[in-house]
Q: What sequence folds into this?
């Protein structure tokens, strides 16, 4: 039944949220206008707080309504119909919430609400100017889901639009205006993963956190407080760096675990759009720390903090405007919001640049002369390297934007993204890694000591010598295993080892001095480990599934697929690298049953999401379903069981790579399964399977007239006819008391095990029906054709087909655990830095120099700060 009430409530809540954000932004602006920091108009201040709280309540109302539509399967709404379905568990329904553009905008708005409410309590003197910026951003974001049409002007795209309004040309509306679909189109197959539940919220929280230091920076420029904003901005930037960095690596692990492009990073434009602002955010954090310690790089800090948030907005434009439609599989389609996104980006670019130009000369600078022995120089060089790396990725990723802009002004552009994007980006980003590893190690050592030639040489000698020795050993091992090491790899290896050892030595030094540990040192060590993991796993991955048969699998495959995959016939062992592998069949995921269930234990019904158990389904002594029970399955995912046995060690393990056939997404969607060892991973995925949606090509039926106890030979197998018995409900016959159904009982001996086969002969309403039974492992099908009760003879038909097979690719990823452990260490370092600063209070104000005067150099002697 059509239900418009919940959608009306949701849409009204969006409008209320938009109006309240507008009122809050204006009220906070008026509260701070023309006044010094901390001196506000109480009336406007009260109105601003109240309006933001109303905005927050309205946003929560929108979320409740939208999730209610998804959870309640209200398919009269386009959003629920296009992203959800009846068979999704609750956690995937949560994922449906942010799969679409409107839901992801709403998730971003929600995190801003949470952060804004925290700022209401913690910003104190900064509240009015900071919340004016905050509410202004909310105004723009809320407009993206407003869904208001004024003549030819469309403002936002509403998640509460009815299906009949979104697709008005469907003929069904002519006969039934209140038509409601019985099911939705479902969540994208590749997004049905637990990472979809946790990765987007983490990433959008990282996006949201970049707004806070931006708001402090803009408020500082606005109020002429050029230095006080730094301390709160550092704390929020640390949180942003932690959450956004972890979110990015969550996405990398999700890709590694779910996609079959062979790794954790594909340099897709959408991946780049998130990576770029994180690099600049980390660079801005180093600039802020430089100002706190040495009163340097304040102008740079302003620029980088502002640029981080603007790059987040630019990333939003890239991924949601449709401009990357032909360049990325991850980008959203254009919902007609391109103009709004451009206005949104342009408004904050103009505001930020105007304030920077206006205040530039008044921002304090330092006249301290930097030399080679100043740690600040190397911190600044490291920040510069990060920015250069970000710019290189930004420049290439934006090629579709250049083309779109030139086309808009009537100029035809032939610019194209690099044919091999991975090679293109790697060529430059390798040197980014070299610079980051070297600077992080050198700067961290210099940060905690007084430096001159003698002291620096003494401190650097041990980590530098160990890094060189370690590199030499690795190079020898690589050559011993028949591989070569390029010069760039050698340089990256050496500097990354130096980064790990230099930061580790400083951590031990601080422990000996009983000084609180440096979060920056731990984070830098983690990043250096990540670089080593990337170098080893990507630079020296080893394809162990080489085709040594001399056969061409298919002319439709490219040369790489024919060379780098192994053909596995069902139950036939094959050699693959150091392993003997055997493909043993197809399996389904049955909710509530641990592991996977053999497809041969299930009888499919007319409902593709339900099956009958043909035998007891149990794990150990626990029976989850008895024979004949109806159970739910997830039919879109088929798991292919592959057994591995190491020929030398005899160690065994089993993998279940997954494949889905989805013509709308290009055919076969394969997800790997991974066996994790201490020093490497075995990464296996399906490259091809027999056509699942195509009827098997069976041979002509060969008839056998048998008596009970007879044996027949079926190709390389033999079967014993053990008798006839009443047919069981496990065949899915739906038998009634007036029906007659019997089944033959065969025991077929295969290569590895025996199979019970039960072809059925049924009589219903004087009509004969036959239901064959199939042994997929052997490519056999038996049919019960006739009964001769007088002679005690039974006629069975046997037909054969090509045995089941898969084409599998397996790759050895050496030392990839260094990447994941380095990520964890980086997160711990950020957490330590946040913990260390938790009790810091605002520093005394540093008076800004008057316009036209030269600021006096400040040479403070503070306690050393950790580089974050």
A:
């Amino acid at each position: 039944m059509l239900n418009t009430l919940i959608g009306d409530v949701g849409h009204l809540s969006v409008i209320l949220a938009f109006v309240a954000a507008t009122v809050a932004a204006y009220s906070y602006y008026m509260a701070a206008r023309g006044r010094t920091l901390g001196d506000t108009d109480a009336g406007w201040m009260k109105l601003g707080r109240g309006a933001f709280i109303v905005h927050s309540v309205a946003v929560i109302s929108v979320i409740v309504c939208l999730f209610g539509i998804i959870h309640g399967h209200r398919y009269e709404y386009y959003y629920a119909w296009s992203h959800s379905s009846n068979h999704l568990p609750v956690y995937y329904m949560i994922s449906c919430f942010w799969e679409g553009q409107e839901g992801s905008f709403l998730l971003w708005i929600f995190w801003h609400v949470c952060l804004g409410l925290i700022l209401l309590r913690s910003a104190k003197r900064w509240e009015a100017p900071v919340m004016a910026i905050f509410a202004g951003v909310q105004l723009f974001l809320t407009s993206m889901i407003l869904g208001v049409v004024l003549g030819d002007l469309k403002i936002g795209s509403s998640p509460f639009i009815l299906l009949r309004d979104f697709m008005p040309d469907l003929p069904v509306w002519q006969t039934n205006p209140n038509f409601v679909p019985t099911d939705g189109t479902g969540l994208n197959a590749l997004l049905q993963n637990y990472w979809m539940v946790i990765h987007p919220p983490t990433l959008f929280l990282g996006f949201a956190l970049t707004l806070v230091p931006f708001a402090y920076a803009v408020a500082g420029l606005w109020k002429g407080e050029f230095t006080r904003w730094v301390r709160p901005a550092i704390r929020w930037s640390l949180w942003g760096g932690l959450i956004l960095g972890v979110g990015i690596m969550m996405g990398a692990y999700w890709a590694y675990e779910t996609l079959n492009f062979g790794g954790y990073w594909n340099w897709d434009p959408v991946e780049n759009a998130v990576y770029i602002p994180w690099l600049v955010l980390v660079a801005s954090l180093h600039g802020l720390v430089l100002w706190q310690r040495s009163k340097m790089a304040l102008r740079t800090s302003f620029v980088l903090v502002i640029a981080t948030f603007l790059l987040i907005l630019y990333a939003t434009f890239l991924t949601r405007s449709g401009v990357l439609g032909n360049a990325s599989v991850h980008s959203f389609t254009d919902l007609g919001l391109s103009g709004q996104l451009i206005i949104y980006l342009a408004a904050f670019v103009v505001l930020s640049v105007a304030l920077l130009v206006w205040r530039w000369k008044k921002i304090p600078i330092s006249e301290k002369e930097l030399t080679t022995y100043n740690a600040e120089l190397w911190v600044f060089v490291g920040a510069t390297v990060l920015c250069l790396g970000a710019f290189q990725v930004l420049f290439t990723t934006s090629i579709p934007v250049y083309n779109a802009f030139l086309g808009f002004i009537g100029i035809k552009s032939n610019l194209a993204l690099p044919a091999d994007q991975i090679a293109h980006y790697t060529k430059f980003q390798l040197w980014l890694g070299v610079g980051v590893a070297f600077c992080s190690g050198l700067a961290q050592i210099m940060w905690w000591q007084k430096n001159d030639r003698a002291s620096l040489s003494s401190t650097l000698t041990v980590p530098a010598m160990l890094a060189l020795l370690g590199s030499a050993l690795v190079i020898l091992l690589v050559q011993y295993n028949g591989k070569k090491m390029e010069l760039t790899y050698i340089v990256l290896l050496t500097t990354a080892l130096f980064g790990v050892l230099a930061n580790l030595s400083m951590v031990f030094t601080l422990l000996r001095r009983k000084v609180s540990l440096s979060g920056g040192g731990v984070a830098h060590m983690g990043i250096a480990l990540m670089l080593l993991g990337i170098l080893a796993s990507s630079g020296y991955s080893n394809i162990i599934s080489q085709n040594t048969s001399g056969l061409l699998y298919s002319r439709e495959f490219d040369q790489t697929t024919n060379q780098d995959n192994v053909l596995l016939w069902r139950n036939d062992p094959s050699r693959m690298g150091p392993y003997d592998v055997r493909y043993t069949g197809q399996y389904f995921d049955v909710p509530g049953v641990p592991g996977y269930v053999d497809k041969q234990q299930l009888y499919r019904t007319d409902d593709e999401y339900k099956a009958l158990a043909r035998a007891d389904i149990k794990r150990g002594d626990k029976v989850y379903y008895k024979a004949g029970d109806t159970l739910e399955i997830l039919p879109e995912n088929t798991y292919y069981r592959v057994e591995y046995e190491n020929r030398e060690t005899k160690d065994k393990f089993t993998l279940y790579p997954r494949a889905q056939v989805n013509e709308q997404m290009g055919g076969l969607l394969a997800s790997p399964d991974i066996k994790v060892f201490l020093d490497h991973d075995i990464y296996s995925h399906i490259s091809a399977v027999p056509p699942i949606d195509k009827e098997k090509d069976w041979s002509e039926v060969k008839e056998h007239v048998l008596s009970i106890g007879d044996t027949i030979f079926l190709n390389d197998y033999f079967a014993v006819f053990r008798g006839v018995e009443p047919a069981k409900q496990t065949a899915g016959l739906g038998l009634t008391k007036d029906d007659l159904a019997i089944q033959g009982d065969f025991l077929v001996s295969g290569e590895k095990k025996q199979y019970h086969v039960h072809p059925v002969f049924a009589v219903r309403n004087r009509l004969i029906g036959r239901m064959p039974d199939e042994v997929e492992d052997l490519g056999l099908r038996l049919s019960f054709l006739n009964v001769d009760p007088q002679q005690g003879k039974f006629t069975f038909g046997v037909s054969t087909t090509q045995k089941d097979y898969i084409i599998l690719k397996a790759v050895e990823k050496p030392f990839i655990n260094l990447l994941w452990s380095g990520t964890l260490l980086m997160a711990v370092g950020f957490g330590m830095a946040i913990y260390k600063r938790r009790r810091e209070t605002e520093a005394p104000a540093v008076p800004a120099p008057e316009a036209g005067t030269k600021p006096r150099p400040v040479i403070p002697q503070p306690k050393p700060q950790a580089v974050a």
Notes: DSSP finds 21 helices and 29 strands in the chain. The longest helix spans residues 42-71.
